[in-house]
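Structure (tokenized):
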């Protein structure tokens, strides 16, 4: 039996402007003594691109049996990914099925498990999105099959897709009467545990449907008519794809149902004289230093569906309102300013998907 080197071409489906100068991804024949992969995708709360992907992990099956498992392939100076252990093509028409992913199991904080036989494949079991946005990763996968006859010269293309949803929160205001200063954001009550099936490319959320609140801080920003990201140095969130049930400030101010919302840590003052409107003047809560707090959370219910591989950009518009007091506040649910936070959302395949959300309270009069 003749064995010849096997290599795969790793491609990205992400059509991002930042990838415009990436190296070409057309597979080429190369001299090698083992499997190698063409450039691909990175991690943390930053999207993975062809240029920043330096390491992938691959499991291969042939006839339902494991050929190799969770093998690490690292990008070399020639842009190909190679492993320390070398693997070669088998018989001329013997198909090899490949399942690839990034980042590593350790970075994902969950196990990659495999099955053999007719259902040969991989699963990411009970993955939990980290509570800290800075610790979140961009999980990507690719599946492909090849034979020596068809792919010996050209390689096998691996096309990676993002498997989480990327979330960015922006804010703006065109209200001349009030000045809004923002220092943080919350993405409230999103489900965060699930299992991913590499064969179906689908998530199954855990049966308990537990939820998490994701908080990020930013340097103080004064809102203007131009939307500004308020995600801070942690970057955008990478969260579990899911359908959201919106919080009801009027019917469930304490959010006993643990439904979804967005919240902004904000200070509102009158532009004319600097008088502080929110936190309310009668507010006697203190910050961690024991001083009266100068910022408080203003929230808006969040609904819709997050799909994997899509980036959602929410623009919170404070022009005509400031939402409701956060459900974790001692006095939740009541309107912050009379009027609506306008809500705009865009969505696309790993490009900006925007929504502008009016920060209007869900009950109470509107701004006059």
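Design, position by position:
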């Amino acid at each position: 039996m003749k064995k010849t080197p096997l290599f795969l071409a790793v491609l990205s489906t992400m059509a991002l402007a930042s990838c415009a100068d990436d190296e070409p991804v057309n597979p080429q024949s190369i001299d090698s003594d083992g499997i190698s992969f063409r450039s691909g995708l990175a991690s943390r709360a930053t999207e993975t691109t062809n240029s920043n992907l330096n390491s992938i992990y691959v499991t291969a099956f042939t006839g339902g049996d494991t050929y190799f498992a969770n093998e690490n392939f690292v990008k070399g100076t020639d842009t190909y990914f190679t492993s320390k252990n070398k693997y070669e093509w088998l018989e001329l028409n013997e198909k090899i099925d490949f399942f690839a992913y990034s980042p590593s199991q350790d970075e994902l904080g969950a196990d990659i498990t495999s099955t053999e036989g007719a259902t040969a494949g991989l699963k990411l079991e009970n993955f939990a999105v980290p509570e800290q946005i800075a610790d979140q990763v961009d999980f990507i996968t690719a599946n492909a099959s090849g034979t020596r006859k068809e792919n010996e010269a050209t390689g096998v293309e691996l096309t990676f897709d993002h498997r989480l949803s990327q979330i960015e929160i922006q804010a703006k205001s065109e209200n001349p009467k009030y000045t809004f200063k923002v220092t943080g954001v919350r993405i409230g009550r999103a489900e965060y545990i699930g299992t991913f099936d590499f064969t179906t490319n689908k998530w199954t959320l855990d049966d308990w449907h537990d939820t998490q609140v994701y908080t990020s801080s930013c340097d103080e920003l004064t809102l203007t008519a131009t939307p500004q990201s308020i995600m801070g140095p942690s970057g955008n969130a990478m969260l579990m794809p899911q359908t959201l049930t919106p919080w009801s400030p009027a019917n469930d101010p304490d959010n006993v149902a643990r439904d979804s919302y967005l919240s902004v840590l904000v200070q509102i003052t009158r532009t004319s004289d600097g008088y502080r409107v929110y936190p309310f003047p009668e507010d006697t809560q203190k910050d961690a230093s024991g001083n009266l707090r100068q910022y408080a959370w203003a929230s808006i219910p969040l609904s819709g569906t997050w799909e994997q591989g899509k980036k959602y950009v929410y623009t919170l518009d404070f022009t005509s309102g400031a939402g409701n007091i956060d459900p974790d506040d001692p006095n939740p649910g009541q309107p912050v300013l009379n009027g609506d936070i306008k809500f705009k959302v865009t969505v696309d395949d790993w490009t900006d998907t925007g929504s502008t959300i009016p920060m209007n309270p869900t009950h109470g009069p509107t701004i006059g």
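Reviewer-requested clarification: The chain has two helices and 26 strands. Residues 172 and 227 are 5 Å apart (CA to CA).
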